[in-house]
Sequence to fold (289 residues):
Amino acid sequence: MTLDEFIIQNESVIRIGVFSSMLVIMGLWELLAPRRAPKISKLLRWFNNLTLVFLNTLVLRLIFPMAATGMALFATNHGWGFFNYYNFNPLVEIIIAIIFMDFIIYLQHILVHAVPALWRLHRVHHADLDYDVTTGSRFHPIEIIISMLIKLATIVVLGPAVVAVIIFEVLLNGMAMFNHGNVGLPKIIDNFLRLFIVTPDMHRVHHSVEDDETNSNFGFNLSCWDRIFGTYREQPRKGQIDMEIGIRGFTSIKQTSWLHGLLLMPFIGKMSGYTINRREWNDTNITEE
Fold:
């Protein structure tokens, strides 16, 4: 059995294994060396955030039984997509496919911040009053469905190998859990790593209540996109410890931490000013970093 065949045949085990391992590793790290003191009960947040993750997984399985892996196999069998028209070294193809799909995720992330209706969905992710490993998987089911449709369209155009899609999704999930961790790295290590990947301190800026900081550092995996397209921000104005996490106006624990509040959030309240080009922060309050 080749490595590709092993990965394909054991996809579910690999996915569950990586998710569970990252949850345990990051959870213990957060417990032993938290970057910030939590505002509310960790048990409450973890129960509701992980219940939402379970619900999203169930919804995806019901609507897209074969999901991204099935689409990649279908595209390969029918000769669809860029990689099915040209011959690449398998390793080179996997690397290019992962980089391209990561770029699409970056663009998608900007899209959900730019379109008010999509921001209504995405603010479920941002309204978490604390920031930890479970925040990285906390999304509204409708956003998860839209994300999957974008992913399927990308696979049809790109035509990547099935193994490339599996590796990408496992990497993306693992990295999202890592960079949403309530942990910190020594500055010299953080500065080096963020040249290549998104670190917790880098992405935490994106969860600031300050909307200009929210609309920065959109990357989930590779950090290069924010640098290339001018959306990179090194640190929040108030620093990692004093910055406020969440969205202004969303301070109720019932609304931001309980499952029913998360599911209803996109459909209630007025549109906030966090969507790109609708900034409401005051220029006079900005100080040099």
Remarks:
- Residues 3-276 form one domain.
- The longest helix spans residues 90-114.
- DSSP finds 15 helices and no strands in the chain.
- Confidence is low (pLDDT under 50) at residues 281-289.
